[in-house]
Amino acid sequence: MVTTGILKAKKIWLFALAAVTLLFAFNTTSFSAAYVQSWHLVDSGKHLDYDGDSIYMSHITTGAGIWNGYKSGVIRPDSIWVIEDVYVTDIEIANGYTGVTYASGKIELNVYYLSDHSTTRRTNTATHELGHALGLDHSTSTDIMGPIQTTILTLSQNDKDSYDLAYSKY
Amino acid sequence: MTIVVAALIVGAAFGFNFFNKDTNVKNAVSEVENVDTSKLPIFPIRGSFVYDVNNINEAVGIVDYVFVGKVVRNDGTIYKGIITMESENGPKEVGTPYTKYAIQVIDNIKGALIDTIEVLKHGGVSQDNKGNKGVFIFEDDLLPEVDKFYIFLGYAQKDGSIIISGPNSNVPLNVSDKQSNNLTKQSLSSLSVYQQYQEAFENQIISVQRERFTSKYEK
Hints:
The complex is a heterodimer. By secondary structure, chain A is α/β, with parallel strands linked by helices. Chain A has two domains: about 1-30; about 50-170, Collagenase (Catalytic Domain) (3-Layer(aba) Sandwich). Chain A has helices spanning about 1-30, 55-70, 110-115, 120-135, 155-170, and strands at about 50, 75, 85-90, 95-100, 105-110. In chain A, helix 2 (about 55-70) links the parallel strand 1 (about 50) and strand 2. Chain A is globular. The N and C termini of chain A lie far apart (about 65 Å). In chain B, about 20% of the residues lie in helices and about 35% in strands. Chain B has five helices and ten strands; from the N terminus they run H-E-E-H-E-E-E-E-E-E-E-E-H-H-H. Chain B has a five-stranded mixed β-barrel. The interface between A and B is large, with 40 and 47 residues. Strand 4 of chain A pairs antiparallel with strand 2 (about 40-50) of chain B, so a sheet runs across the interface.
């Protein structure tokens, strides 16, 4: 009787372990995805060299640090030795967005909205726009690359997977 | 001698770059005539929004005007915020394209605009002095075509102009030739898209508090 009881308990424990393992596997593999757009601004040397006259350049620098924390040295400030890939400038227009990136190499940060926003929100926008310059597309609301401005400043698994896929295309 | 020559070369390089990097021109505007965009490649504009672009109630809530209009004329593209960027082939001018349209206002859903207005649509033919042209337009957006009807979502600007900007900011209305000659509020009411935007206005969500401006085209 005691042996049967122990075997039953072992079976239940093993079943629970398998279920938890499956749950974790599902969570880590199925819930992340890569989102890349049709263009990027990274040069043939796999660098994104930025320059600009935006009043939010410090937020761009912080944003560059967030991406470089995952892939070191890709985003760099422009220098006399290289050709700039992206130029960050300001606009003041009522149009529904805090920042926008063009395939021509221009990032516009919108003072109309950002002037009232917190440092965290401004940095989220700056990081998001650099993500577009890197070739990442919009993803989900829990990512830096979600379509709506948030307070997120940490790369999600979606952001990392998207960056990996974009990087493989440079 | 060698040191002097080296110093001159380095100095010249610094000087060249100094002039090259300080040629950015802000707020300049230039114009090009209307061109056929049908054969140009599309380069989607990407941005970070302050509202949920997929929520029609929020989309109506954030703008100042929602109106049914017929596109009377396309007056070409203007470029704002022109900057000069470095490129492998030398300096290039990069401006933000806006396409100019004359619109006949058929019906006001939100706001009250006069019968004939001019608007700037965010997007259009890219500015590229190297001959590589394309069309810049937001995802889920399109450039209006002359003689067609749309529901426009517009923002009044500080200078009194109206900008149509963002995904779904001009939604096509399928109007038959027979209907187009005599479109009234009553005939529009039979169109499901029109009903959708009427309902969205009645249930609009203003998710962003912002300073609002008045257009010079208001009644």
